């Protein structure tokens, strides 16, 4: 009886309700392909009354007669453990469970008795749960399992007189959906079928010729395939019958936003948008709960950031299922940005730098020795190139007036030049379909000559351009990161001026939304809003100062999501958390507490380790001999000297301007000591002078005061104590 192709040798299959109808067909099909089969059947009538062993025995005999392996089980599926035990006892394992057993108690809704309701749920839904649960851990441990749930068109679509059955049958789909998610990582797959076949269940409602035509054998091959180890299908629903198979999925209309910012949501607004709520043109097909929910967060951010504009925005319809393959990867524009020191200075002023902060001078004054360009200036040459290309994307309804700057990523490969020529090349990295809008990911590489200096990724949200049948996520997207759940390590506040946007725009972002009140009103804002990239610049320079000592060499990358608008004049509060080389941050509007930049981070390069100190000179210094001699004499004196002086003196002896040796004369601890190196406990007074000057002092060619006033001797710490030292040098350093 061997069938070639998809084989199940060594696999153990449990089919519930396999004494007749569909179950029997499954049992025979699996056995034919080498599986060992547990043929379960309670053997009652189609309403669930009575029991008998004959139904299961008959099918077992049939399989064995053909040379297959099978054992019977006569328990109800409500005794799930017992069914699985039969499989383990007879064949030592369980690989596949086909939940198929079922009965009918059809009644019009109001006539359904408690018992009719309960028994349908107990056999179909609870029975499938109990049998599957009994098999689960075996499947999990062996990292293989295939499960089938049997639903019904009556559940999917409803059917007169089958309310109890419909409810239980669609309950099985919910059960399967979650099992599929939980089982995935153990290679346990669970799929659901809604079969149509002639059987004793259907012969009461189907004409005989259809009962004969819709053979169970036209359903079994789907079940066999779904349960094969080579089939990756998981969590899916199929309708099957008569030799035809179709897959089902959820479809969701694009829907409509029915409330405006700070406005109550009313039933009248729902009524007025009803047509749109129910319009399946360009509908989306959410596959996961995450995809399902993402439309809600999109809606929230649209409502919040757009005021009531999205209420009025009519969705611009695009032809369904636009093929974006020709667009993704396309080069948009190449743009040359030529600048002098003026632009980086203007930009620095635009993001709130001020001469009030002495640290800022190197960003504001081209004559400063360390004059440099703020790292976040890297977005400026890139944005011109990007805007040049956007409007020309065919097929997608890209309307610049409905564009929101969603996210920004910038990575620097070297500090930006303070003037010169930068060439930016922009390409479409990906296009995402968020249902309510489209997200365009634009990558911009900026070169100085042939050298790549920085890379930007702009994430632009186009309201109303979604629903073209595209994917929702992209592996090319640079993602934001949530800050740690603890109070920030640092917070810096900046008050923006009423003219902040007017100043920032001079760096090249001319959108009137940031300056013109009537234009801003059109967008639903009470007044012009600050550029998101301006707030971004404030945050970037705060992180640079707080965690990278304003060293532009250490600024590697930054990512932000623009969550809420900021109005010029408001106070920005940048909260920062250090996690290794990543500085998480978010920027709040202090006056409202709202988060304007969310999920931000800056990656910094750790500070270069201090250059290893040149080895100190242990030879060739005349002073070494003097200190050694002092050491000997201190030893001789015992603690007498310690009592008298009670101080620690450190000596930094220089040679050719560099520290060449350190000595410590400790006349404080124990009976005193003289040793090489810095003071082990802190020095009271530290002297710095050259080897030659030290010798002059010791030989009294110059007295210490004179050496001090002429700058040859530097003293740190307690100067008065140095008088005591003079005495020591006089008496103990005589060579
Ligand atoms: P069927 O009545 O021929 O087979 C069901 C089998 O389950 C019977 O042999 C019965 O003895 C057994 N059974 C009933 N209660 C049991 C229990 N508590 N424990 C163990 N076995 C039990 O009916 P058919 O048509 O083969 O149905 C198979 C499954 O397919 C059922 O779940 C049914 O609801 C479902 N289905 C069938 C459709 C069809 O067109 N035949 C349509 C939609 C769903």
UniProtKB/TrEMBL annotation:
SUPFAM superfamilies: NAD(P)-binding Rossmann-fold domains, SCP-like, Thioesterase/thiol ester dehydrase-isomerase. It comes from the Eukaryota. Pathway: Lipid metabolism; fatty acid beta-oxidation. Gene3D superfamilies: 1.10.287.4290, Hotdog Thioesterase, NAD(P)-binding Rossmann-like Domain, SCP2 sterol-binding domain. Residues 11-185 form the Ketoreductase domain. Signal peptide: none annotated. Keywords: Fatty acid metabolism, Isomerase, Lipid metabolism, Lyase, NAD, Oxidoreductase, Peroxisome. PANTHER family: DEHYDROGENASES, SHORT CHAIN, SCP2 DOMAIN-CONTAINING PROTEIN. This is Peroxisomal multifunctional enzyme type 2. It comes from Corvus moneduloides (New Caledonian crow). The gene is HSD17B4.
